[in-house]
Amino acid sequence: MALNDQELAMAFLDLSWQTFRPEEGFYTSEVQAPRPLPIRTFAPIGYEPRYPYPLIVFLHGHGGNEEQILRLAPRVSRRNYVSIGLRGPVCLGPNRKGALGFSWGDASHLPLVEDYLLEAIQQTRMHYHIHSERIYLAGFADGATLAYRMGLMFPDKINGVIALNGHMPREDRPLLRLPEVRSLKVFIGHGIANSVVPTGMVREDQRLLYAAGLDVERHNYPTNHRLHADMLRDVNRWIITNCAGI
């Protein structure tokens, strides 16, 4: 059966990662559906198209943006991962530094965010060699809540959730799809002096996930609601350890 022009173009894109050799650095593209939204990408040093890389999807907190959150990527590792940063669909206006800040919205925005996330992952896999079972969502603050939600909704597409100074959804909490979610791995990094997200909430999250049979690792750090350098080092170690077990 002959392929039409669109199918031929998609087939070409599906193979483009075999010859694509980007320099280390940051790149910007867009998803077109359901509306134009950006994908900020960090390509690792010495990118090798024959190697299937883990993918880290960074999700910013309230008032952040995709450029700000993706600056964490080279601090986790300049070599080990392809990383992308996504932008919340609701613009909050300029932040204190003059850059536009965004949020992930409320329950009415979830269908848009779901489509955006899945389309961004698919588009990244067209251009970079991504291991299909090594896709991680890394969220800070409100981004961690979204990472939990998307990971629990799509455990067949997401291998792990990294929650940094954030908590699980408290409203419209997604149902734990047992036994599918038991394959989801969770890393929790939290500041012991965090007054925005109290440690008790994080302990409750850990107990719930552990009771559901998920593999959960939690670490506390000497910080408040800010990120700590040891968090990022531990994220790198945790992903490497999980990849070695796949």
CATH architecture: 3-Layer(aba) Sandwich
Count of helical segments? Answer: 7
The description of the largest β-sheet is: 8 strands, mixed
* Poorly predicted sequence stretches spanning 5 or more consecutive residues: 1-12
CATH homologous superfamily classification: Alpha/Beta hydrolase fold, catalytic domain
Keywords:
globular; 7 helices; Rossmann fold; alpha/beta; 32% helix; 246 residues; 10 strands
What would you note in describing this structure?
By secondary structure, the chain is an alpha/beta fold. The protein has one domain (24-244): Rossmann fold, CATH 3.40.50.1820. Helix content is 32%, strand content 26%. A hairpin with a 5-residue loop joins strand 1 (25-31) and strand 2. The protein is globular, with a radius of gyration of 18 Å. The model is unreliable at 1-12 (pLDDT under 50).
What's this, in brief?
The chain has 246 residues and is α/β, with parallel strands linked by helices.
Secondary-structure topology with pairs:
Blueprint: H1 5-15, E1 25-31, E2 37-43, E3 53-59, H2 66-70, H3 73-76, E4 82-86, E5 90-94, E6 100-103, H4 110-127, E7 130-140, H5 142-153, E8 160-164, E9 185-191, H6 199-211, E10 215-221, H7 229-244
